[in-house]
Design brief:
heterodimer, A: 378 residues, alpha+beta, 2 domains, 11 helices, 19% strand, B: 439 residues, seven-stranded mixed beta sheet
Chain lengths: 378, 439
């Protein structure tokens, strides 16, 4: 152990200038990588908080979408819209044979034709829906599960149905969960009927609302990935598009720096070990085994890496704080970032393993042939 | 010169194992500089494009004209237009006719050559906005694309109108409508809910359809003098962020409303967050729409954040690149110290030795550049694929930009290498000869 420490100390003394410059360069690379990761992890959250504080509209409109498209955000969303064959171009039929069509052609006195349409909506029962309409549930029996329908009294009268009766819309069966007086509750609801559908139902047009911008953003991204075009308010659209751009930039930079970091680490340590080849050969001639040589360089690498990680972490903290201060000033809203030492530990472990493997192979590569070559050269 | 190159080539071959490591490092550094610059340029371009296409970036409304340079030094007023506000236009198509009146607008029918065309509710893309008169001029259309964007001409006389192709589609009309007279008819919103109201009424006033009475029958004849093609909608960001449905001239005045004026100040781009603050803080000056303020505001803020990110990371990384190159040149020259000493003894001057090293590094740098370009192009595609999959965004760059940033990367690496080599050459000049003599 004493021998290892002595050799290590001598080697560091010999390489002090190289070690210093290497440590500086790698600390800067590592600090940048940590800072990018920390900023990426918290920037979106801060922007979402800012957006939530602005009280802007957190809904979007989409065509040809189903609630299942956004499985992860399903329960936090309110999905209300039009579904072909259910709320438009549909015929409601009661078991008694009475039926009502959602569109009726009307011919006027002058021969011109126009269409009268019922005002109906389909809804997916989610937690958000149940929370949002909690008060309405007290006065009107809104659909609480898939397959239920709430009818305006005018429609129920035409169909001759009442609560718990079954009706069909197209090929689907629905149970009447309530009949409400449309005139009396016009300020609360003005639907001719409100029907709950399952999450697989494809809406021809749907309005999706959220109470948190983060959920809206995730749902919006998921829909985009599924090829569904969503329309948001200008502000939300600008916020999301810009946030995606900045996040994309951060991801791209993080990937680039991580790749470069690994390549530079390899090149730097390989060059140093290559430089010290004749010294290592001499050590071997003097009786040192691979284990001892490996232990010396392993100690140097691990100590250096630990110092780089710690220095990089604190430097990244400074960078992140400055960036977040700039954001706070720009947004006039507090922006904070959490600098997690765990990232540093994970990085140390991953890079440490890579470097140790590198060191192991390089030391093993210095075989008898190399020793003979060095001896001849001397 | 030839001798130096030959020597450099031989040395390079002799020390190729060392140079492989150096090339890896140079590839990494070139890769870093090229990609970092590419992503930064791409991000800035995308944000600028976003501002240009989606936000009413060029116009500020106000009750007074803005003077040149009033907002900030880097921000100039290009043009001030005095715009007579016509309530008819505002009521029919304009700003005041917001989304909340959307259903009412849907009830507008167009009569053309004896047949009545109703709005097709299936075409939900229809956006019933038009910029007020004078805000869009023939010159604007010309600048934005001219003949490709407009069939026919801009309104020159009273009761002429330009319709967008999008508008025609919504009403099931074709381009044949050009030069024909059309009549806009506003159908009462409640009509389809039981025919309680009389046949025609004025659209756009909530009080009318809220309280259910009829005030003014609205029926207006226009000649369609131009059609804006669908291409136009792609450029709509220049015009208030709305996609206008129709343009009417200032001659189509309905005297039943009072005439007011306002100023549209055409500005040289929206520069920064400070601009937003300035304009926000000025009474009587406002943007084309509340949403535009917010869109511009958030874009300016995110632009500021991304600028700061690029500045911080760029500065730190350039120092890291410099330190890495210093370390590498030092180690490489050290590994060749004996060889260099022999060259000095055999009559090579210090300057010639410096050029030998330089030539060796140049060979390594060229090999690294070739490898870095392949790696960088591949990475650009891979990273963009990842970004598109995760965030539906791309940070791609044009070939020209890519070549420019690659050249910048090579120039940075070359400059730092030359400086570093010069430093190392001075540092080891005496040591090499002395060590050689010792052996």
């Amino acid at each position: 152990m004493k021998r290892i420490l002595k050799l290590t100390f001598n080697e560091i003394k010999h390489l002090k200038w190289t070690v210093l410059v290497t440590a500086l360069a790698l600390t800067l690379f590592t600090a940048s990588l940590f800072a990018v990761i920390f900023v990426y992890a918290d920037l979106s959250g801060n922007v979402f908080n800012y957006f939530d504080g602005e009280g802007d509209d957190m809904s979007f409109y989409a065509k040809s979408a189903s609630a299942k498209d956004v499985t992860n955000e399903l329960q936090s969303g309110l999905f209300v819209g039009e579904a072909d064959g259910i709320t438009r171009s549909a015929v409601l039929t009661a078991y008694g044979g009475n039926s009502v069509s959602t569109e009726t052609e009307v011919v006027k006195g002058d021969g011109s034709v126009y269409y009268e349409s019922l005002y109906c909506r389909a809804v997916v029962v989610t937690q958000f829906y149940l929370d949002a309409y909690r008060k309405a549930f007290d006065v009107v029996s809104l659909p609480k599960k898939s397959g239920e329908i709430l009818l305006a009294d005018t429609i129920a009268e035409k169909l001759q149905v009442n609560v718990d009766d079954e009706i069909t819309i197209g090929e689907r069966n629905f149970t009447v969960c309530g009949v409400y007086d449309k005139k009396l509750f016009s300020s609360l609801l003005d639907y001719d009927y409100l029907v709950s559908v399952d999450e697989n139902t494809v809406f021809s047009e749907v309005n999706v609302s959220f109470n948190k911008s983060e959920n809206m953003y995730n749902a919006y991204l998921t829909l985009q990935k599924n090829g569904v075009e969503a329309e948001l308010s200008g502000f939300a659209q600008a916020m999301m598009d810009n946030l995606s751009l900045v996040n994309g930039f951060l991801i791209a930079i993080a990937l680039t720096i991580a790749t470069v970091n690994i390549l530079i680490l390899y090149a730097v340590f390989a060059v140093i070990l290559r430089n010290r080849q004749s010294y290592v050969c001499r050590l071997k001639i003097a009786g040192a085994g691979n284990g001892l040589i490996f232990a010396v360089y392993f100690t140097i690498i691990i100590v250096l890496l630990a110092l780089i990680c710690v220095a990089g972490f604190f430097l990244s903290k400074l960078m992140v704080n400055s960036i977040m201060d700039a954001c706070t000033q720009a947004f006039e809203s507090p922006f904070t970032a959490h600098t997690d030492f765990g990232v540093c530990a994970v990085y140390f472990a991953a890079v440490g393993v890579l470097l140790v493997l590198l060191c192991f192979f390089i030391v093993r590569k210095i075989d008898n042939k190399a020793i003979v070559s060095v001896t001849r050269s001397d | 010169m030839k001798g130096i190159l030959t020597l450099a080539r031989r040395n390079f071959a002799a020390y190729k194992k060392n140079y492989i490591k150096i090339i890896v490092a140079l590839v990494a550094l070139l890769f870093l500089i090229t990609l970092f610059c590419s992503f930064t340029v791409s991000l800035k371009a995308k944000q600028q494009e976003y501002l240009y296409q989606n936000i009413s970036s060029n116009y500020v409304y106000g009750d007074r004209p803005l003077q040149t340079g009033e907002i900030s030094e880097s921000f100039t007023t290009l043009e001030v237009k005095r715009v007579p506000l016509e309530p008819l236009n505002a009521a029919l198509f304009g700003e005041g006719f917001g989304k909340e009146f959307y259903p009412a607008f849907q009830r507008i029918a167009i009569d053309c050559q004896g047949s009545r065309h109703f709005y097709d509710e299936g075409t939900m893309d229809f956006i019933p906005y038009v910029a007020p008169d004078g805000a869009i001029t023939p010159n604007d259309i010309k600048e934005a694309g001219g003949a490709e964007l407009m069939i026919g001409r801009y309104p020159e006389n009273a009761y002429e109108i330009v319709l967008t192709e999008e508008c025609l589609n919504c009403y099931g009309l074709t381009r044949d409508i050009l030069d024909k007279r059309v009549t806009f008819r506003a159908i009462n919103f409640y009509e389809e809910y039981g025919g309680l109201m009389s046949e025609w009424t004025h659209p756009g006033f909530p009080s009318q359809w809220e309280y259910g009475y009829v005030e003014l029958p609205f029926e207006s004849e226009f000649t369609v003098c131009g059609i804006l093609t669908c291409e136009y909608t792609k450029l709509s960001g220049r015009f208030y962020g709305y996609r206008p449905t129709a343009i009417v001239t200032e001659y189509s005045v309905f005297a039943s409303y009072g005439l007011t004026t306002e100023y549209v100040c055409s500005l040289d781009g929206w520069a920064s967050n400070d601009t937003v603050k300035y304009v926000d803080g000025q009474q009587g000056i406002y943007y084309a729409g509340e949403d535009n303020v917010k869109m511009m505001d958030i874009t300016a803020k995110m632009k500021l954040v991304s600028d700061r990110l690029a500045l911080y990371f760029g500065s730190v990384l350039i120092f890291a690149v410099v330190f890495t190159l210093i370390m590498l040149t030092d180690r490489l020259c050290l590994s060749q110290m004996k060889n260099s000493g022999e060259l000095l003894i055999s009559g090579l001057t210090n300057r010639q030795l410096f050029f030998v090293w330089l030539a060796q590094f140049a060979i390594a740098a060229l090999i690294a550049l070739a490898a870095a370009i392949v790696l960088t192009v591949g990475s650009l595609y891979a990273v963009n694929a990842v970004l598109y999959d995760a965030l539906s965004v791309r940070l791609d760059v044009s070939a020209g930009t890519f070549l420019t940033v690659s050249a910048i990367g090579l120039a940075v690496v070359a400059a730092v290498t030359v400086a570093s080599l010069a430093y190392v050459a001075v540092k080891y000049k005496r040591k090499q000869t002395r060590e050689l003599l010792d052996t």
